[in-house]
Amino acid sequence: MDDGPLEQTLVLIKPDAMKLSLTGYIFSQLSEFHTGLRFAGLKVVRVTKSLAKQHYFEHVGKPFYPDLLRYITGIMHYPDAPHKRRVIAVVYSGVGAVAKIRQIAGPTNPHVARQTAPGTIRALGTLMPVEGEKGNIVEQMDNLIHASASVDEGEAEIKLWFTPADIMPEMRQWAAERCDSHYYVKDGKLFHEYELGSKLLMGPGQLAWKSDLEILREVAQGGTPDGTLGRVAAKYTINVDE
């Protein structure tokens, strides 16, 4: 039996894996039988541009960034089928979760995975030339899944893709609280009362991550917290935003 602290990590089954019908294979490879890890949360997500931007915020300004957004939102693989554009987001929990998942996932580059780690999930992926956002030819890397790179990254990513209510109480690793106010967002600004065209993020009694409520309360008071309003808004409007 493994010894050590429990970890949680995020896995995203990306649009290319969905298009190739590899979902069952991936779940089999990452099953409790193979890894000793358990599901803590799972959801089918229509990835909005705002969510994609928050997930890939560290790549802002890089040449491949616009096409990375088109990839994760499903536009690249399903240009004419919006109803098929989705990602399966999964939280895995257990001892050594981050390293176990990344070992089975394999190297980021599928060609490297085939050469150095055949049998890993990404060894089934590919690199291919496709037409980019601006009509130019870019190299698309279909590597099938995303896996958190570290424990800290796992926490940040899980809190981006999942609310506390998406995870059963016994498996939540981070503090959650009941909201005590209404929070609306419009054009990057936060309101306590409804403004025409605004979106409701959460209301009194709704369960939220404590860290998210701290961000909202500080923004409401005119502060600049260690976290962005956009990051909170992207999560609480998953499968709500168009």
Question: How would you concisely characterize the structure shown here?
Answer:
It contains ten helices and eleven strands.
Descriptive labels:
alpha+beta, four-stranded antiparallel sheet, 2 domains, Alpha-Beta Plaits
Give the C-level CATH assignment of the largest domain. Alpha Beta
Question: CATH H-level name of the largest domain... which superfamily?
Answer: Nucleoside diphosphate kinase-like domain
As residue ranges, the low-confidence spans are none
Structural class: alpha+beta
Task: Work out the oligomeric state of the chains in this entry.
Answer: single chain
Global mean pLDDT:
92
Overall CATH architecture of the largest domain: 2-Layer Sandwich
CATH topology label of the largest domain: Alpha-Beta Plaits
Strand order of the largest sheet: 2-3-1-6
What is the succession of H and E elements? EHHHEHHEHHEEEHEEEEEHH
Please tally the helical runs, counting DSSP H or I stretches of 4 or more residues: 10
